[in-house]
Amino acid sequence: MTGSVAPEADWDKAPGLLDGAKELTLGPEECNLAYWFTSVAQGTLRDRGETGHHVDATVPDFLREPGPLRDALILEFGFRSLSEEIATRLLGHYVAIAPGIPELEFYATQLIDEARHARVFRNHLVELGMSADTLLADIDDMAADYRKRVLDPVENFTLDIVRDQADFPGAVAVFAIVIEGVLAPAAELSERKWTPLSPATGEISRGTAIDEIRHLTVASTILRDHTARHPEYRPRLLEILRAGVQLWDEVPDREFVIHREELFQQGMAQHADRIGDYEIWPGVRMLDTTPDQRYDMAERWTDEMAESRMAYMGLPVDVLSSPGTGT
């Protein structure tokens, strides 16, 4: 490292999550501790380390007032904070079984990334007016059903592979392709939704998306290189991916996402003047979209990312298709 910030970690130069995850090539050897300290801590997080947003990027007063838009944001960031907390705890197992120093250093930095994400999502709820004294208990209460029905099955699936079986490449596949590969497009949607409404919220989403690019691309390189060195592992990898797809087919994630998108829809109508002709994706005004359309677009982004990363790893993309649906 020369002390300069890598372009993909630079706040102003980094691509969007979808483009970055589909097009960039990064590996654990380059995304080491030195990279993290120089390009992430002193690059992405410069002037944004405490809250995830610049001091000049504020929370508008209307988001601190009761209403469906605030409710949607509280649910979204409350659920995401809990998801990132669980991810942080899972990643401790990745560090423990990492086969080499590059992988150890990379997953140590991802552990810190996810812990930071959980923190800024939580603290943003305080910026919205939730009580700091009861915040953790309040998040647990609001997300209890989501944790039981969505997060617990995903956590148990991951623990079986990373902790019980100590299968490092399998665990990498679970986290990057099954978990983050599905959730990352939702994070992209979040950034696009909140940017015209709240500078602070948009910046938090932007910063976490920059991190996710690194997580997805480095994991893809780890898996590509592992299967190239150990082609006999390929059937096992495909088996894990199929099981992961089946898991996501079984958990009721859509139910929770659509609920908060419906709240967002109500709030968006109330604050249409603040949104105006802002386009959530090219040629489509956000005001003209529905909850189902936004959810379906995030799923389309998931498919596009999967096709790109699977091709990069030399794996068949159809392994990620739901049985009997062709999608």
Give the fraction of residues assigned to helices.
Answer: 55-70%
Structural classification? mainly alpha
Gross morphology is: globular
Q: So how many helices?
A: 12
The average pLDDT is 93
How far is the N terminus from the C terminus?
42 Å
Rg, alpha carbons: 19 Å
CATH superfamily descriptor: Ribonucleotide Reductase, subunit A
Strand content: under 5%
**CATH class (first level) name:** Mainly Alpha
Q: How is the biggest beta sheet arranged? A: 2 strands, antiparallel
The fold-level CATH name is: Ribonucleotide Reductase, subunit A
Q: In what order do the strands lie side by side in the largest sheet?
A: 1-2
Main features:
two-stranded antiparallel ribbon; mainly alpha; Ribonucleotide Reductase, subunit A; 327 residues
Précis, in short:
This protein is mainly alpha-helical. The chain has twelve helices and two strands; from the N terminus they run αααααααααααββα.
Can you walk through the features of this model?
This protein is mainly alpha-helical and 327 residues long. It has a single domain, classed as Ribonucleotide Reductase, subunit A, CATH 1.10.620.20. It contains twelve helices and two strands; from the N terminus they run H-H-H-H-H-H-H-H-H-H-H-E-E-H. It has helices at residues 17-23, 33-44, 68-97, 101-127, 135-142, 144-164, 168-194, 199-229, 234-250, 253-270, 272-275, 291-313, and strands spanning 279-281, 284-285. Helix 7 (168-194) runs antiparallel to helix 12 and helix 10 (253-270) crosses helix 12 (291-313). The longest helix is centred in the middle third of the chain and has 31 residues, at 199-229. The radius of gyration is 19 Å and the shape is globular. The mean pLDDT is 93.
